[in-house]
Write a structure and sequence with these properties.
Length: 337
């Protein structure tokens, strides 16, 4: 669906009762009776899964698979697949400066990126009543998967030039990847940068925010929105830097009190979150999900730019009774305020 996303986001900001906008894609495996491994290997299944979710619940936007292994696999990383869980990177590809210098920027379409782009193209044709957003990984989070998520934290201090070399290549690929999604008909991307949430604010200013901003500046326009996601523990301490990225909207995890993120937030951008996907949507009950959802709503509904969402990507085997409970709790709440 062709949309002026700038106008669509502005309209959402003006209405008191906004639709729930969770990062909801992988639980489609339950609706379709397929495995995660089958889903990630077939663009038609991915598009059908996005459509099945759009038909099941009134999400404010349809989000493609938030699979944070896809881009790293293109760079040569080894990925572990399973029937029930989201794929994970299990082996670093950059061990030293020589590896960083030799690291090649892959072509968009390599490995599974071609499947994921095709899936969004098909989904955009199937889902015409809400924006269709693609999921991509943020540059520092991608670099961490290429260099090892623990090792990169040390290398930021000991070998910053090596980290920067890898980050520059990650940015180059991600810009091209986002542009391919734009050409495929996506209305925007959700950039997940959770590993940066473990950095100090000073290190995030050096190794994450400027690189995300390069991507935003290169791909965001009136018709294509970037939603920045971070579910790290330190996001409340680095919110000034995060808001300086210039994304069209921001999405935060349940590691922080979402109400704290509105101080300093641009009034004209949406701030989304943050019902716990692990503790509640996966591990909770309908009653506990309802209570957690109402707690977020009570805390944040007074902010005009607040949008209820999950705190992160909802795990594949999260019971649909719990997901439905989040939407039902929102309906009940807004019926009384």
């Amino acid at each position: 669906m062709s949309l002026c996303m700038k106008e669509w986001l502005a309209a959402q900001n003006k209405v008191a009762r906004k639709p729930v906008m969770p990062i909801l894609s992988f639980p489609c495996v339950q609706l379709m009776d397929i495995t995660v491994k089958e889903l990630i290997s077939d663009s038609r299944l991915q598009a059908a899964g996005m459509k099945a979710i759009a038909d099941r619940v009134p999400t404010g936007m349809a989000v493609s698979l938030m699979d944070l292994s896809v881009e790293a696999e293109c760079f040569g990383a080894t990925v572990k697949f399973s029937d029930d869980e989201v794929p994970t990177v299990v082996e670093a590809v950059v061990q030293d400066e020589d590896d960083a210098a030799a690291l090649a920027v892959p072509e968009v379409g390599a490995c599974r990126t071609g499947l994921y782009i095709d899936a969004v193209k098909e989904a955009a044709a199937l889902i015409t009543d809400r924006p269709v957003m693609a999921g991509v990984i943020g540059p520092f989070s991608l670099a961490g998967r290429l260099m090892d998520v623990s090792e990169i934290m040390v290398l930021c201090y000991e070998e910053p030039e090596m980290v920067e070399t890898v980050l520059e290549k990650c940015v180059q690929f991600t810009i091209n990847y986002c542009k391919a999604y734009k050409e495929a008909g996506a209305n925007g991307v959700v950039i997940a940068e959770p590993l940066a949430g473990m950095l100090s604010p000073a290190l995030a200013e050096e190794f994450s925010h400027p690189y995300v901003k390069q991507i935003v500046d290169a791909v965001q326009d009136d018709g294509f929105a970037v939603v920045y996601h971070n579910c790290g523990d330190n996001v409340a301490r680095m919110k000034d830097g995060i808001y300086g990225i210039g994304a069209a909207a921001y999405h935060f995890g349940d590691a922080v009190r979402l109400a704290d993120m509105f101080e300093g937030a641009p009034a004209d951008v949406l701030v989304m979150g943050n019902v716990s996907p692990a503790a509640q949507l996966l591990g909770g009950t309908p009653d506990s999900v309802k209570a957690a959802t109402l707690a977020v709503l009570q805390d944040c509904h007074q902010y005009p730019n607040f949008v209820l969402s999950s705190g992160c990507d909802i795990p594949p085997l999260s019971p649909w009774e719990n997901i439905d409970a989040m939407f039902a709790a929102a309906d009940d709440f807004y019926a009384t305020v």
